[in-house]
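Hello,

Our lab assistant flagged a job as stuck in the queue for most of the afternoon. It eventually completed. Since we weren't sure the result was trustworthy after the delay, we are filing this so someone can double-check. Below is the sequence as submitted and the structure that was eventually returned. Let us know if re-running is recommended.
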Amino acid sequence: MKPQRIILFCFVIETFLSFSQIPQLDVKHYRIEIFVSDETDEIKVDELIEFAHVDTNKPIILNLASYDRSHKGMQIESLQLNGQKATFNHQNDSIYVTSDGSQSKEQSLKLSFKGIPKDGLIIGKNKYGSRTFFGDNWPNRAQNWFACNDHLSDKATVEFIVHAPKHYEVVANGQRMSIKKSKTNKTYHYSSSISLPTKVMVIGVADMHIEESGIIDGKKVNSCVYPKHKKEALHDLALAPSILEFYINYIAPYEYEKLDNVQSTTRFGGMENAACIFYDEDALDGTRASEALIAHEIVHQWFGNSATEKDWCHLWLSEGFATYLTNVYFEQTKGVSAFRDRLKKERKTIIAFEKRYKSPVVDTAYNSLMDLLNPNSYQKGGWVLHMLRNELGDEYFHQTIRKYYQKYRLSNADTKDFQKVAEQVSGKDLQWFFDQWLFHRGHPKLNIESEVHENSLAMSISQRDLPFDIKLPIRIYFDNGTRLNELIEINDHQTRFKKMYKEQIERIEIDPEVQLLYEEVK
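-- returned structure --
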């Protein structure tokens, strides 16, 4: 798709930052029973949270949106800690539960609440006027409709029991365990045995046509679309099985129980919810222009959902990976020309963005989590992987991607973790590479002057701003029809290159294979 630091303030008295981790808790499992209706936007939730209280010297705190003057938010009706009624305070979008600290680390919290979600669970109408309910959690909006430790570092298994009017279909993470019907309602039970970050725990409730589009490695791939848009959406989503198979072969086996690809009405163009991807209702138009979007969201099942960044500032490990591995899919299925065209377009986007936002890819100075959804995390993160591939070579790069995933699957990692894997695979010291491309802002700005005289080439390359350590690829075309590639090493403000060749030079081309992120300036 498409996050400040950990701070805990004094219990009850101070404000708790809702996008920070709650490190004293390790949630193991969520059981979320939710009631939705057509008569009201109010939801009712009965929830069981099983967790380890890993630091009993610190209070039990969970995220849940508070009821406010807009008459939205959740009102807790009952709460039990380890089967006993407990004292609690619900304020500042957090639940503070009184505990004497003598309990064992393995505990459970059972609570019932109701209210109209401020966000997170989007209740409204699709473009056909039909009522819909779709989870839309990224980055930390799950707390608007269920109680949780709403940080991507605390993964847990989850099950949803959804009670909805009988005309709806329901999708969610995990395996569908059962459907029970009454005269007016249906109850769906889904369960994920694989731990997930809250950002990708969702339900979808809507009038939907659900159709199996394939079985890959024994896992069902389903298309879930609006009935009035069935033909067009099914045509687009029919690409999903082959895309899934491509990434299974390129990265690793697919972790989850199935894959639902769902037409939806939410905030984002696509959202990579684990095994239950949501696509904007207008993205599936029957032209298959959404192929890149589908590939991008499917990549996230490995990078972002399974191997998840430790904290928000490392978002490129999710979005940069999805961006670049989408390009790799196009390289393998559409050819090198299509691959390079995508890279050129993304390079232009990065250059334009840097002019108005001066920040490194690993950005610790953001003001809002949504600020991180920018070309640094997506296109520049992808370009960093492309340049790493050029630095390591195709074989070592592919090994790095696979080994990184195997080491951190179903877990969390940060940029340094990925760097260590790349160094182990390649045997190279890559500190300089990661420092300049990910922890420092900007990109090389090069003034390139060249002079050709018969068989002689002279070049002067000036770097503006802080110099980068780079290799500038050039291709020399000779009058006899041959050509030669050169790499000019640049690590200072001024570099001069001069060389004589046996043949007469016709012309030169800068970066012919689209290998370097740079901006040419005058």
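-- support follow-up --
The delay was a queue issue, not a problem with the job. The result is valid. The two ends are 36 Å apart (CA to CA). Confidence is low (pLDDT under 50) at residues 2-18.
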